[in-house]
Amino acid sequence: MTATTAAVDETSQPAVDQSQERPKHILRTLGKSLREYKTSSLLAPAFVLVEGILEIAIPTVMATLIDEGITGGNMPAILKFGLILLLCALVSLACGFLAGKYAAIAAAGFAKNLRHDLFEQVQGFSFTNIDRFSTGSIITRLTTDVTNLQNAYMMIVRTAVRAPVMMIVSWIFAFRISKEISLVFLVIIPILAVVLIGLAAYVHPIFERVFHTYDELNNIVDENLQGIRVVKSFNREEHEDIKFGNISETIYNNFVRAEKILSFNAPAMNLCVYTALIVISWVGAQQIVASGNDPALGLTTGDMTALVTYALQILMSMMMISMIFVMVIISRASAERICQVLNEISTVRDHENPVTEVKDGSIEFDHVTFRYSDSSEKPVLDDIDLKIESGMTVGIVGGTGSAKSSLVQLVPRLYDVSKGSLKVGGVDVRDYDLVTLRDQVAMVLQKNVLFSGTIAENLRWGNPDATDEEIRHACQLAQADGFIQEFPKKYDTYIEQGGTNVSGGQRQRLCIARALLKKPKILILDDSTSAVDTKTDKLIREAFHHEIPDTTKIIIAQRVASVEESDLILVMNAGRIIARGTHEELLQTCDEYREIYESQTQNKAGEE
Ligand SMILES: Nc1ncnc2c1ncn2[C@@H]1O[C@H](COP(=O)(O)OP(=O)(O)OP(=O)(O)O)[C@@H](O)[C@H]1O
Ligand SMILES: [Mg+2]
Predict the structure, then answer these.
(1) From the CA of 230, how far away is ligand 1's center (Å)?
(2) Which of 181, 407, 453, 513 minimizes the number of CB atoms within 10 Å of its CB?
């Protein structure tokens, strides 16, 4: 595809609805990106679980080793339980390794798919969708937000199953040893849960703000770097620096606030851990003294060792759950933001049974009204009626902001009409297959862009299969061959990102050539020769006239000379076509047109 896809350097506002997505909705949307990493996502917790269960078994074996072997001085028992202990430790180690490996694969793979899905979704966006998200915000979502989710997911597959299972199993084991002592946990766990949930509710909005500010930061960086030349020529470095510093400071402040609140997590945890240990030791010691360390009479030292280990297991699990909690709090804001992009429905979608052939280059506007956003009061284009026959050359003139670009952007369906209908080749543009339509309607955007790569590569955007001969021919028509031949590497000259190493006029001619290579039925030039000298401009128009007579040509221009010979000239003002006709007719009938023409010819005479 040519220039149509190239111009996403919009001046967008972060107008995205920040309303919260429902958790169930979020999980369903994100779950779709798991795909081939589902197995790893299941294997990781499975291995973690085995590892955990073995870790729970170890204290029991240890207790038996102490009570039957060491306390009784029984060497064969020591050996037997010692070996079992070693085996448990080895298998647990192996499981730990495998769990880590699969967790890493699952998380990194999930992130890869998510990034891919986001990118693909953005590629499918219409101009209206793109207007809703700022470039910076899309970049944050693709990078920081995805990384947050990756970290959270890693944590979740490793601990979300293990922690609760460990907690419950440890508690059951502890319960079997001492009912009274295991009750301690039943009191502590709910208290901790309430504290954690309270923290989460309090901190979530702060993180939401942080990510929103990240968007602004990225927007500033993006805008600044894109326009670095303008920044420098206006000496605005310091101003930009301050702007960046302020945003950066806001992020810092919000992060510090959020982390300050989250730091209550650790002391709350510790308080619970130590209280639990003190109570267990106190109650346990009393019971051991009462039983005289006799298994038949009650609690023994071995039991006590196991109990303390279980207590630590339970508290560790709680610690892990609280960490997942923090992670989920941080990543929830990210998840919501990612889902906003993934669930954004493209406003320009293919028809169910699309038409895949454009008959000819005729265009018909039937009472077309257009607004960029549904909420705006005044339409940008108001009740446009216009018939252009195939092969005609149509010129459009009018003041800045008179909606010339808005009018022609509807033809390749960069935006959809708000009211009325627009037909190309006798068929409503909404009935076409989008690729078919945009292949036949080539548009050189006012804000044209070249991509990093050689000249030939850039031109092949118009037609990937174009031969060298065809490329050269298109460049000759666009009057670009001449200067390309002067470059040492000719068609293999490397174009820097954004086309910074060619002049404005050269870039415009390359963009015209790129559009010509599509061999379209309709060619739209939106102010595409504004940086080209009048003589070359004339040569381009003559070449069009002779070489592509059957192509419908729409030329938007500031210079009347660029449209003078058109079959039809439209004069636009404030979203309406105020006059139409040939050059001679308009000179007679349209005061505005005559004024523009005279001011331009007088200037010229003056210069000469
Ligand atoms: N993406 C956009 N979102 C919202 N409003 C827009 C957008 N693009 C243009 N407009 C508005 O639509 C109106 C018409 O703009 P348009 O770009 O069509 O004018 P134009 O005639 O092409 O001007 P110029 O000669 O300067 O290129 C302007 O008031 C402008 O502010
Ligand atoms: Mg314009």
Answers:
(1) 22
(2) 453
